[in-house]
Structure prediction request, 547 residues.
Amino acid sequence: MAAETDIETGVAPAHRATDSAEGDASTGVGADTGGGVSAGAGGSAGAGTDLGAGADGGARAEAAAASDATGEPARYETNETNKTNETNESYDDDAYDDAYDSFHTLTGWGRTAPTLARVIRPRTYEEAAAAVLACGARGSIARGLGRAYGDAAQNAGGSVLDMTALSRIRAIDTDAGLVVCDAGVSLHHLMEVLLPLGWFVPVTPGTRYVTVGGAVGADIHGKNHHVSGSFARHVVALDLLTADGQVHTLTPGTPLFDATTGGMGLTGVILSVTLRLLPVETSLMYVVTERAADLDDLMARLTATDHRHRYSVAWIDLLARGAATGRAVLTRGDHAPYEALPRRARRAPLGFRPVRLPAAPAYVPEGLLGRTGVGLFNELWYRKAPRRSTGRLQRLSSFFHPLDGVPHWNRIYGRSGFVQYQFVVGHGQEETLRRVVRRIAIRGCPSFLAVLKRFGEADPGWLSFPVPGWTLALDIPASLSGLGAFLDELDEEVVAAGGRVYLAKDSRLRPELLAAMYPRLADFRELRATLDPRSVFVSDLSRRLGL
Prediction:
């Protein structure tokens, strides 16, 4: 029977908001849909739901109404692309260049280590294949919206495929909760289209301005890893363009799929993805906030209560010392049910209206985010948080992506940029986490964007980052004296504890530590050598680490 939607209110039935529609909540793997949906190089879709030429949201609502009358799955037709301000902000001129083929100096979101590359912006799968086959000796790498913090989507002296023009949503199956889309579609655009239909992306990181292809290539995680795993767990199928110009449809559990999810674009160019979605009744979050007095208090609270909430994250004050070391503000949330909304909010329960603030200025003085400034911010942020607050409703965009409301927020670190450092250590290695937090506090690293989360079960991707345990992410101004040597010392601590660093955020890891962090590295290298003997797919990251 077709998925039911109240067209007047946009509210999906309550039974849609259960874990059964998503699949096993502990694994994030949905049920077999009887063949599922896959999109080939030409954009065909299974499961009987096709998207062709354009229509607006009203047409989608009419299609849903018609589906209820006929008993057939709703069919939506659209030719929409990312019609938002999703510019490739890490180009050197901070302007979106629509040219098919031009040269640019590129950086990651951290704005460090810029390199020059020929940027090609294919508009069709055929153009992408032609660009791969014609790339020179320095090879090529796919790039989305430039939100990898380090050098994963750069290729000095070679070519970079800007995939953002391949941004069609090709099919939505409202019965099975599946979407088929091009790799260049952003999570922001998926939310714009899917939320009015009662669906949400299964995993989102701290920004919605990442492409689906990038989400798969980095196997991103979010605040719900302890429940839903990483992004790739919800991928039903993907189409991969390999070095020989061929397109392969991959499914979970196969070697090439597991090498691609988390493989940082080094197995090929992801063209399209079939993704399993999460049903929601509203676009608001039901949020619980509380303070933790120190790191041990924080870990105890996370351990005791994580299982009660779909999303959980802690902002941690890494400048606090002594008895307050590791003090934090713990935030947990769940998608608010329709019944929890006040009467006024029930008029548009699935409305998606992100807040947008003025952009950060193009020039910010170096040292603005020093110890004094960040220390003051951290003190105020901790003090203003309630000791405990329950039942507060919050916009989805504010809960998941607060920094997205400030365009070009990465400029606030000045021209030197910043380093994002994220590691994970397993359960039983809490003392390592304590030592690292103490060392950061004693060193006085000025980080105001520091978060601690708990990961659930490990993900199957060979180079996927999450493993069960504790993950800490922090930003540090790249101009901080002695930063490289200090982070090298932290790497040694992490490796000794059996942990690893996140490749999508890395910009400085020593290659000799990589094999100890990622046990399937040898398999990944062997598969790459067989699949891509000419090293067509290469990046600054892969050269630096010998991937």
Observations:
- Confidence is low (pLDDT under 50) at residues 1-97.
